[in-house]
Design brief:
This protein is α/β, with parallel strands linked by helices. The protein has nine helices and four strands, in the order ααααββααβααβα. The termini are far apart.
Length: 194
């Protein structure tokens, strides 16, 4: 294991609230002393012999770090696949406006006309009933449309949601945020009246 990965695990160990201040100081001192005289470290051996008293806690933190690293790697691969689908698709629309209010999404074209068909609405309702999330449906719809430009209309609370981060990652430079327009100021009913 190289020194960068060691420092990553060291920082992770010291960040977690699982240790008392005293335990953090002991760990930090042990690691600093060891690295002062060595270029490489065998984490298992170090934990077993130098930090044996904290082995269970350290094992859990290391395992969590590995899980986080793996999840992040899988997420990046997933985003690359979605970007690939966008790149190979012929754009069906120049511009799509995504209006987000609470947990509902509506798509509008460049003329602020609702992008909707009965077929699309029926499938959306069925898939939601089957447990497929609205976020997944939104992403799938936008990948199918593959717009040249995507404008997100959302309030500040919505801008921090994971779906926004995914859209920004997948559509990258095609995404912008509206600073206020008719779509934002109109109180659009997001559920179709029957």
């Amino acid at each position: 294991m190289n020194k960068e990965r060691i420092e990553h695990f060291r920082n992770r160990l010291l960040e977690e609230n699982k240790f008392t201040f005293r335990e953090k100081n002991v760990i930090n001192t042990e690691i600093a002393d060891f690295l002062e005289h060595n270029k490489d470290i065998l984490v298992d051996g170090f934990v077993n012999f130098r930090l044996g008293f904290l082995k269970n806690i350290a094992d859990g933190i290391i395992e969590k770090s590995i899980e986080d690293f793996t999840a992040e790697k899988e997420y990046k691969e997933f985003i690359k696949i979605l970007q690939y689908f966008i790149d190979i698709q012929e754009p069906k629309l120049d511009l799509v406006n995504v209006v987000i209010k609470k947990e509902e999404y509506k798509l509008f074209d460049k003329n602020n006309k609702l992008i909707e068909s009965e077929f699309f609405t029926e499938i959306m309702n069925e898939l939601v009933e089957e447990g497929i999330s609205r976020d997944d449906l939104l992403i799938s719809s936008l990948i199918t449309i593959a717009p040249k430009k995507l404008i997100i209309h959302a309030d500040e609370d919505c801008k921090n949601k994971d779906i926004i981060k995914i859209l920004q990652s997948v559509f990258s430079d095609k995404v912008s945020f509206c600073q206020g327009c008719n779509l934002c100021t109109l109180q659009l009913p997001l559920k179709k009246e029957k």
